[in-house]
């Protein structure tokens, strides 16, 4: 098995609002291994982006704050690093691409400028070497005529091209981990297919680990080696991708898998999870999914289920259905 | 053959591009470029395509929410572009629209009950008791509770706002509803709820839908017939079953194969299209798809293919079918 | 109806909670903004001072007494007297009435003209829009202070009675300032018109009257309130500046501006600061307070800032 690259240990990121505390990330633990793609899936507001932002330490504070836990990167706790040490890791060893390829590029700088900048900053290349490397990178992300693109401005490119450029920038310093936060959500399906292809390619060529955040189970099935499912700030299930799709354990995961219409498999009626995501403010200490769950028992309403494996070591979930103890004490 | 509810012929909608000091028109975005189709009573027609293909513009133009450039739109035999303003206003309740963005589609300063019911006031119902009753009834149908009548939109989640939008469209008992990407802004678990709501409503109220979406799987689930659009033109249209079993146009094929399937064991042989969608302001000559088409040849560059019936009510515009 | 449509999760507290209107939210945000609240308290204080204060004054506005001229602040004359022996405190309070009144009335005029023209331009568009906006451009291109000076001179020339001058002044300041507001309102309406809820009103076949009064105008009110608040300060400053230059409110009617200008010689300026510091402070406090309120309102009414 590959070495562990990043380990989240009981991470807690909270946001203080006037209405109360939002535990955006609540006791989250999982491991990203070298050369592996780990997908975090969940609906909006489940804490998947906040988890990634915590890793990058880009949480806006206030209102947000990492209040507990550890994030180990190659054995070193990132949360203990100084601002300077962290900024050396950020963009160098860990880099990130975002959902909105329009707003993540600076409109007044040329593409070339924006790619060369981190190269000169982190890799200490001179202008000429940086340009050479930048053109290589543009080539790597599948753009023809890299010299021309080098001198163009973001508005001259389409959404898909911009996302490619973002990936090129992210890859500029040979990061060990690439965080992709909904990288294809804003793109059309045919362009999404291109970008996903590109990311798979890069992973193979450069052996980069990828932390992919998405809400689309289709993307997960295509990209992931390992999947983490989040709901209302907690990890409720994690498993290797095949395991998860073939034998989902948590009712929420099951519901998600059934709720999505699949092409060429027409059903009469879609399965739907009733109700909606709970208000994240001051959640009680119970299973946050209980009011939408069709298997809800008394204990679910009062106590949080432990997160552990039931059977296979690699497949963990947090649900009372798989526990011996079911009595309300 | 069933009754034709909406008949659209050679519809064109060009948006002018202005430039220069004097805001002169320097070109046109051909958002909808010569599209014809019919929608029969009680069916749901799906329109799929990528961003900028003009599907939303069609939805708005056939309701005369923006003006057409050319062509005719007949709703129940009435040309909605030749109706005088007041008559058109009276006819509007019969054809409604549900929007994509659950946030901008509701006025933040109007209470939900009022937003749903206000159309009744302007169409002759003045008794506020009756209005309240009808609003509550419609809210109930759409899965909203009566205590939510006096609340403001900002207190609702995306899915609930979408329900409010649907209730607002339903209050006047419409016959035809344009659903413009009604679920794309929602989370998966909420999407399924709204899709089910829409299909229940169709069954109970014999509604006719024009369902606009970029998501083929949703369209397959909900629609009887599907039209595929690319850069302002219809490239293929047929019954849902036929289209998904036997897609003919290379774009349709590519679109279908591009959808990620939530099954890691699924073996796909994906057709990955090269390049980007060209700008609708300056579409390629001949067949608009030829710049990205895996099977394009010289004829495609020069000559636009005819949009023709290849049997079984399966219409397609490609030289190689 | 099917099972999955019906359930609506109700947070335990949603039912009990009173309806949270957009105005209430705005109020809450405003009251949480310390600077804005300080501004509000300051302005309330100024109003109380100017409108109620004079009732408790033992002096009279026309108590000329040369024997008491140029007294420094003391027990009888808290802020001293001017060169005609009049109580500065009383004059300052009465001047405040006029200044605040000028500010408010001029702003009302500004809002009426600006909001109406802006709304008309935005809603009807095309030719009407072009016409109104070009007129606005012309107004904006004219430098306002020289215009005010010319108009002030014209008023003097026409021998308008000093007591009715302030009314002309209000109208002139009001009329000259409408363009900013008209632009804001027009811009707001143009963006609103593109919103999907406005398309929905069209699709529902609502009448124009309902579209304008129920949907468009309520959404422009925040913009109007903020702009109006800030323009009150502007109007007060204009009035003070004009009165200082001797072409606004003219003596014996007191105004903060002409009180300062009365201290325009070096001796008064150096040796008798009680002549000009109090009215100067009033102008400063009032305009700072109003600007603080305006900024607070802007933050409170902007739906994009979520706090």
From TrEMBL, chain A:
PROSITE patterns: ABC_TRANSPORTER_1, ABC_TRANSPORTER_2. Transmembrane segments: none annotated. Keywords: ATP-binding, Cell membrane, Membrane, Nucleotide-binding, Transport. It is found in: Cell membrane. It comes from the Bacteria. Gene3D superfamilies: P-loop containing nucleotide triphosphate hydrolases. SMART domains: AAA. GO terms for cellular component: plasma membrane. The keyword ATP-binding applies. InterPro entries: AAA+_ATPase, ABC_Ni/Peptide_Import, ABC_transporter-like_ATP-bd, ABC_transporter-like_CS, Oligopep_ABC_C, P-loop_NTPase. It is a peripheral membrane protein. This is Dipeptide/oligopeptide/nickel ABC transporter ATP-binding protein. It comes from Paenibacillus glacialis.
From TrEMBL, chain B:
InterPro entries: AAA+_ATPase, ABC_transp_ATP-bind, ABC_transporter-like_ATP-bd, ABC_transporter-like_CS, Oligopep_ABC_C, P-loop_NTPase. GO terms for molecular function: ATP binding; ATP hydrolysis activity. Residues 6-256 form the ABC transporter domain. Keywords: ATP-binding, Nucleotide-binding, Transport. PROSITE patterns: ABC_TRANSPORTER_1 (PS00211), ABC_TRANSPORTER_2 (PS50893). Pfam families: ABC_tran (PF00005), oligo_HPY (PF08352). The keyword Transcription regulation does not apply. One of its GO terms (biological process) is peptide transport. NCBIfam families: oligo_HPY (TIGR01727), PRK11308.1 (NF008453). Belongs to the ABC transporter superfamily. This is Peptide ABC transporter substrate-binding protein. It comes from Paenibacillus glacialis.
From TrEMBL, chain C:
It is a multi-pass membrane protein. Pfam families: BPD_transp_1, OppC_N. One of its GO terms (cellular component) is plasma membrane. The chain crosses the membrane at residues 35-56, 98-124, 131-154, 166-185, 216-237, 274-294. Keywords: Cell membrane, Membrane, Transmembrane, Transmembrane helix, Transport. GO terms for biological process: transmembrane transport. It is found in: Cell membrane. The keyword Translocase does not apply. Coiled coil: none annotated. InterPro entries: BP-dependent_transpt_permease, MetI-like, MetI-like_sf, Oligopeptide_permease_AppC, OppC_N. CDD domains: TM_PBP2 (cd06261). Belongs to the binding-protein-dependent transport system permease family. This is Peptide ABC transporter permease. It comes from Paenibacillus glacialis. The lineage of its organism: Bacteria, Bacillati, Bacillota, Bacilli, Bacillales.
């Amino acid at each position: 098995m590959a070495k562990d690259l990043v380990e989240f240990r009981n991470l807690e990121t909270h946001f203080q609002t006037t209405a109360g505390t939002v535990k955006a990330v609540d006791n989250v633990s999982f491991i990203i291994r070298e050369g592996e793609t780990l997908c975090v899936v969940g609906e909006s507001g489940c804490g998947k982006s906040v988890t990634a932002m915590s890793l990058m330490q880009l949480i806006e504070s206030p209102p947000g704050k990492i209040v507990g836990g550890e994030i180990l990167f190659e054995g070193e706790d990132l949360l203990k690093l100084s601002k300077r040490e962290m900024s050396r890791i950020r963009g160098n060893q860990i880099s990130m691409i975002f959902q909105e390829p329009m707003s993540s590029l600076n409109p007044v700088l040329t593409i070339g400028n924006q790619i060369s900048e981190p190269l000169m900053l982190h890799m200490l290349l001179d202008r000429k070497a940086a340009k050479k490397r930048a053109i290589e990178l543009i080539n790597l992300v599948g753009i023809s005529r890299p010299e021309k693109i080098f001198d163009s401005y973001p508005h001259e490119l389409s959404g898909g091209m911009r996302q490619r450029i973002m990936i090129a920038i992210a890859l500029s310093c040979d990061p060990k981990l690439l965080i992709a936060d909904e990288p294809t959500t804003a793109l059309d399906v045919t362009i999404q297919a291109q970008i996903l292809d590109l990311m798979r390619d890069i992973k193979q060529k450069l052996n980069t680990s990828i932390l992919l955040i998405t809400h689309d189970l289709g993307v997960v099935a295509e990209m992931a080696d390992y999947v983490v499912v989040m709901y209302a700030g907690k990890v409720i299930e994690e498993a290797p991708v095949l395991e998860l799709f073939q034998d989902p354990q948590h009712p929420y995961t099951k519901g998600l898998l059934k709720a999505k219409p699949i092409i060429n498999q027409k059903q009469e009626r879609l399965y739907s999870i009733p109700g909606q995501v709970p208000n994240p403010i001051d959640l009680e200490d119970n299973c946050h999914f209980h009011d939408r769950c069709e298997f809800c028992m008394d204990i679910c309403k009062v106590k949080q289920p432990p997160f552990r494996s039931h059977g296979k070591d690699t497949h963990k979930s947090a649900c009372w259905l798989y526990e011996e103890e079911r009595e309300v004490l | 053959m069933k009754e034709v509810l909406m008949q659209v012929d050679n519809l064109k909608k060009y948006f002018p591009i202005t430039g220069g000091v004097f805001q002169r028109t320097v070109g046109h975005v051909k958002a909808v470029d010569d599209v014809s189709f019919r929608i029969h009573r009680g069916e749901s027609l799906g329109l799929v395509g990528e961003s900028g293909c003009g599907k939303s513009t069609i939805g708005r133009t056939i309701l005369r929410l923006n003006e057409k450039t050319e062509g005719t739109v007949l709703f129940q035999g009435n040309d909605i572009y030749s109706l005088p303003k007041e008559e058109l206003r009276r006819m509007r309740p019969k054809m409604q629209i549900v929007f994509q963005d659950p946030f901008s589609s509701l006025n933040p300063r109007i209470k939900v009950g009022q937003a749903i019911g206000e159309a009744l006031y302007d169409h002759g119902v003045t008794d506020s008791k009756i209005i309240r009753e009808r609003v509550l009834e419609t809210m109930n149908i759409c899965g909203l509770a009566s205590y939510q009548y006096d609340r403001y939109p900002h207190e609702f989640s995306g899915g609930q706002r979408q329900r409010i939008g649907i209730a607002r469209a339903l209050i006047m008992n419409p016959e035809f509803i344009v659903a413009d990407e009604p679920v794309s802004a929602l989370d998966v678990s909420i999407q399924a709820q709204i899709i089910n709501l829409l299909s229940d409503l169709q069954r109970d109220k014999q509604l006719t839908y024009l369902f606009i979406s970029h998501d083929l799987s949703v369209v397959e689930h909900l629609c009887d017939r599907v039209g595929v659009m690319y850069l302002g033109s219809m490239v293929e249209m047929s019954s849902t079953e036929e289209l998904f079993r036997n897609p003919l146009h290379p774009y349709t094929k590519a679109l279908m194969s591009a959808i990620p399937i939530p099954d890691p064991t699924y073996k796909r042989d994906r057709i990955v299209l090269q390049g980007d969608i060209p700008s609708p302001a300056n579409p390629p000559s001949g067949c608009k798809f030829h710049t990205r088409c895996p099977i394009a040849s010289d004829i495609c560059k020069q000559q636009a293919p005819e949009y023709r019936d290849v049997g079984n009510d399966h219409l397609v515009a490609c030289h190689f079918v | 109806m099917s099972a999955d449509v019906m359930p609506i999760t109700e947070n335990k507290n949603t039912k009990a909670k009173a309806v949270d209107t957009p105005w209430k939210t705005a109020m809450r945000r405003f009251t949480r903004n310390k600077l804005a609240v300080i501004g509000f308290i300051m302005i309330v204080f100024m109003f109380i001072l100017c409108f109620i204060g004079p009732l408790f004054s033992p002096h009279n506005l026309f108590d000329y007494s040369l024997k008491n001229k140029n007294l420094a602040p003391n027990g009888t004359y808290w802020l001293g007297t001017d060169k005609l022996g009049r109580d500065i405190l009383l004059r300052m309070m009465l001047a405040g009435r006029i200044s605040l009144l000028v500010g408010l009335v001029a702003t009302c005029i500004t809002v009426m003209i600006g909001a109406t023209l802006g709304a008309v331009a935005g809603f009807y568009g095309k030719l009407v829009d072009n016409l109104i906006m070009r007129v606005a451009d012309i107004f904006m291109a004219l430098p306002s202070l020289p215009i005010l000076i010319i108009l002030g001179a014209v008023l003097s020339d026409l021998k308008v009675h000093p007591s009715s001058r302030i009314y002309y002044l209000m109208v002139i300041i009001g009329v000259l300032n409408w363009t900013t507001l008209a632009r804001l309102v027009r811009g707001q309406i143009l963006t609103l018109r593109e919103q999907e809820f406005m398309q929905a009103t069209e699709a529902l076949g609502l009448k124009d009257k309902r579209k304008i009064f129920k949907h468009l105008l309520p959404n422009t009110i925040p913009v109007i309130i903020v702009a109006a608040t800030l323009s009150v300060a502007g109007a007060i400053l204009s009035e003070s500046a004009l009165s200082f230059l001797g072409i606004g409110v003219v003596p014996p009617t007191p105004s903060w501006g002409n009180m300062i200008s009365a201290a325009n010689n070096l001796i008064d300026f150096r040796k008798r600061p009680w002549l000009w510091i109090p009215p100067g402070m009033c102008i400063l406090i009032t305009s700072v307070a109003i600007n603080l309120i305006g900024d607070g309102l802007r933050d409170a009414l902007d739906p994009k800032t979520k706090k």
